[in-house]
TrEMBL record:
Keyword Transcription: no
Parts of the chain that traverse the membrane: 30-49, 56-76, 82-100
Cellular compartments annotated: Cell membrane
Region listing for Disordered, in residue ranges: 133-164
Gene Ontology molecular functions: transmembrane transporter activity
Organism whose genome encodes this protein: Flaviflexus ciconiae
Pfam families xref list: Multi_Drug_Res
Protein name: Multidrug efflux SMR transporter
């Protein structure tokens, strides 16, 4: 939840900085808002990524929403035109971000046995460090494979299964 709040803050700060660029042409004091907006935006985006947001999703939403909001607000504040081509471009960018978001959710579903992994935990060492137990049903080793391994290392089938 915090990662989304940081992302929203990054978007608001980025849009504020972008709109202040236009305002700074008339009143140079707005350059302070530009600097603060962009610095705060990158800091909030960093925190969103640090809290677990995927880079492709976070950056995509940040940039696409920033473009859309900046275009709409510049129309309202500065009377800049929104042509049908601009509107189509915004819709296409937002659609692309939606597709990336959907794709990232399906990619996060990594299943090991009957245990669904957190996408941030990629190795068994990390699982052990976080004291997560993977509950996989013990499968018996096929007899043929057991005989081969028994002849290689001198352990019986039951001893090998106990080790696993």
């Amino acid at each position: 939840m915090k990662k989304w709040l940081f992302l929203i803050a990054a978007i608001v700060l980025e849009v504020s900085g972008s709109l202040s660029l236009k305002a700074a042409l008339e009143a140079p004091a707005f350059y302070l808002i530009v600097v603060a907006g962009y610095a705060g935006s990158f800091s909030a985006l960093f925190m969103s990524l640090r809290k677990g947001m995927n880079l492709g999703v976070g950056y995509g939403i940040w940039s696409a929403t920033g473009v859309a909001l900046t275009t709409i607000l510049s129309n309202l504040i500065f009377n800049e035109p929104i042509t049908p081509v601009i509107a189509l471009g915004i819709v296409l960018v937002m659609g692309g971000v939606l597709i990336v978001e959907i794709g990232s959710h399906s990619a996060q579903k990594k299943v090991v046995g009957s245990f669904e992994l957190d996408p941030n935990l990629v190795t068994y060492e990390e699982l052990a460090r976080k004291k997560v137990r993977v509950k996989n049903p013990k499968k018996k080793m096929p007899k043929k494979k057991a005989r081969k391994e028994e002849s290689r290392n001198g352990k019986s089938r039951k001893e090998m299964e106990a080790v696993r």
